[in-house]
Write a structure and sequence with these properties.
The protein is of the alpha/beta class. The chain folds into 4 domains: about 260 residues, no CATH class; about 80 residues, no CATH class; about 90 residues; about 90 residues, no CATH class. It is about 55% helix and about 5% strand. The protein has 22 helices and 9 strands. A 5-stranded mixed β-sheet has the order 6-5-7-9-8, sandwiched between helices. Strands 1-2 form a two-stranded antiparallel ribbon. It has a two-stranded antiparallel ribbon with strand order 3-4. Helix 21 links the parallel strand 5 and strand 6. The longest helix has 28 residues.
């Protein structure tokens, strides 16, 4: 069997950059990958992956439950009648800000009765706006999918920006393939179904880097085009700050600094309009900073900011610590199938920053490498932290796969290529075949089990075809086929199997037990997950075992959730028993649900 190679297309030379960053669309092929039909096809493919499961998937612990409940309370603070709102003022309680459910308004997100100022407000504004639109301003009619919709749309924006960066580099085909492979990779498909801030951050960062690439590749004498992209850059960067703090400006600043050092040139920065741009950034972000700090106190606000930035950098937070190299180890899995050429493309791309600098490859490397080093050095680590760098990684890989850059390593022999293809195929098998089979064995529900196994069976032929293309050296074809396989996996697992796996959704079982009641408050012993707060619309009390009896006396009409081994209060009325897996803790639970009779009962 012949050893795999990286394709036989003749690499295109690096030409002078198009005047406004757009590719040279002189060929029919380039036009076909950069026109409106290509955009429609890309959006349609992404919607096919992201829409299934958006409404059917229950609220996921823990982060999604926190974001959705905080956004719901923000919506209620402006949509509920004043008589139905809980506006108790914010006060410091045991070192933490506490207040009424709706005390924060649009300025300070509230999770239950606690202020949640450790996350900027943009995602809460987007989610609450989405719910307001689809409920016609009636919060009691909301549903989880309304809060997830901004994440799905943001994922599509990030992929479209990835494609347009490729177009601007004269690599429209590679850009489109990068966008498809990126959109179908496991972490993107999952995060697009989650009502969290990560996809919004990724969209803001991708648009900012799209604008920065156009300014970097543009000609200095084209003031109008550069001005348009400069404004886009600063607005997207400001929105990135409102989405997740310093991440977007950090990535952009490191990229700008690296490019300037490599090119030994700073005059191009004038095209970014830095003075006016920084003023615009401050103008967009400062009103919320001032308003939030005024509500909670400047000392409390800036201490929270310090803890979320320097604190996360210096020591692990919430137990999420890992050594340097953590993100690099996860990259081939999380970015699959775009990871086929990633490591080779990185190795070949780093020299592009040497003089004379390759402006296109150099931009992608400057986007990736400095920020990646920072993420590896930061003590607190989670798999999704490096997602804002994934568009550049996907572009770097697909530009090599489609022959838009030279592969100078072809003469090194077959071992690296063969080993890479084998590892890539094994990772794909683990994600698309082994994971669905394992989930099917794990879940108790027959319909979920058969969906899992059917998903694995549907993925197998495509994975074998992708592996065959990869071994034959057709990296672009392999990536395209594998993207379809990854999309099928996402639709099967996230869209169909997981919503049917009742044993994973303990809180949904509790909701079904009380769907005929309207509890004034919910108390829980042992099982304290945030999805319960969403179920109780923020009116959740996390109790110790010996607090259940006094709680029941002071909350007539409430709902009490107890471990099955606990003795219920004397007045409690049994409703149901719920069993399943608390996946946040990795343990099986058996709970009983009780109603506390009200005065009229």
């Amino acid at each position: 069997m012949p050893a795999p190679s990286m394709g036989s297309r003749t690499p295109r030379p690096v030409e002078s950059c198009p005047s406004d960053g757009l590719m040279d669309e002189r060929t029919d092929e380039s036009r076909s990958w950069s026109n409106a039909r290509a955009a429609v096809a890309l959006v349609a493919l992404l919607l096919a992956v992201y829409l299934p499961g958006l409404a059917a998937l229950p609220i996921v612990d823990r982060d999604e439950a926190r974001f959705t409940q905080a956004s719901r309370q923000m919506l209620e603070s402006i949509a509920l009648p004043a008589a139905e709102q809980d506006r108790r003022p914010l006060i410091l309680d045991d070192g933490r800000l506490a207040g009424g459910l709706h005390a924060g308004g649009l300025t300070v997100p509230m999770l239950g009765e606690r202020a949640r100022i450790n996350k900027p407000p943009l995602v809460y504004w987007l989610q609450s706006t989405s719910a307001w639109v689809f409920t016609a301003g009636q919060p009691l009619r909301d549903a989880p999918w309304m809060y997830r919709l901004p994440s799905g749309l943001a994922a599509i924006v990030a992929c479209l920006a990835t494609w347009r960066i490729g177009v601007g580099m004269g690599s429209a085909r590679a850009g489109w393939l990068a966008a498809v492979a990126l959109g179908a990779c496991p972490i993107m498909a999952w995060e697009a179904h989650q009502a969290r801030s990560d996809q919004v951050l990724m969209a803001c960062t991708s648009v900012a880097m799209l604008a920065l690439s156009r300014v970097w590749l543009g000609h200095a004498d084209e003031a109008k085009a550069c001005s348009r992209w400069a404004w886009t850059f600063w607005i997207a960067t400001a929105l990135g700050v409102l989405a997740k703090g310093p991440i977007t400006p950090m990535i952009a600043a490191l990229c700008i600094g690296t490019l300037s050092l490599a090119a030994r040139e700073i005059r191009w920065l004038a095209r970014l309009r830095p003075v006016v741009g920084l003023c615009l950034l401050v103008l967009i972000t400062a009103p919320w900073v001032v308003a939030a700090a005024s509500r909670v106190g400047f000392a409390v606000f800036f201490e929270t900011v310090r803890a979320e930035t320097l604190g996360r950098s210096m020591e692990p937070m919430e137990g999420h610590g890992a050594p340097p190299g953590y993100h690099l180890v996860l990259l081939p899995v999380l970015l699959w199938p775009a990871s086929l050429m990633t490591l080779r493309a990185l190795r070949l791309g780093v020299p592009s920053l040497r003089r004379p600098i390759d402006p296109r490859q150099g931009f992608l490397i400057a986007w990736i490498v400095p920020a990646w080093i920072v993420f590896e050095l930061v003590t607190t680590k989670l798999p999704h932290y490096t997602m804002p760098l994934y568009p550049a990684l996907a572009l770097l890989a697909t530009r090599l796969a489609t022959g838009d850059v030279a592969d100078s390593a072809r003469s090194e022999g077959p071992v690296p290529n063969a080993l890479g293809v084998v590892l890539w195929t094994l990772i794909g098998g683990a994600i698309c075949i082994a994971a669905p089979i394992a989930l099917g064995v794990f879940v108790d529900q027959p319909d979920a089990r058969w969906v899992c196994w059917g998903t694995a069976a549907a993925c197998l032929p495509g994975l074998l075809l992708a592996a065959r293309h990869a071994w034959a050296g057709h990296a672009a074809k392999a990536s395209a086929v594998a993207a379809v396989v990854s999309g099928i996996m996402a639709i099967g697992l996230v869209g169909l199997a997981l919503p049917r796996a009742d044993s994973l959704w303990v809180t949904r079982g509790i909701a079904r037990a009380i769907d005929a009641t309207a509890p004034a408050r919910l108390g829980a012993v042992g099982y304290h997950e945030d999805s319960l707060a969403f179920l109780a619309r923020g009116r959740l009390d996390r109790l110790s075992a010996n607090a259940a009896e006094p709680w029941s006396r002071s909350h007539p009409g409430g709902i009490l959730v107890l471990p099955a081994i606990e003795t219920p209060p004397r007045a409690a009325v049994y409703l149901a028993t719920v069993e399943g897996w608390n996946y946040s803790k990795g343990e099986r639970v058996r709970l009983r649900v009780y109603r506390i009779p009200g005065p009229e009962q």
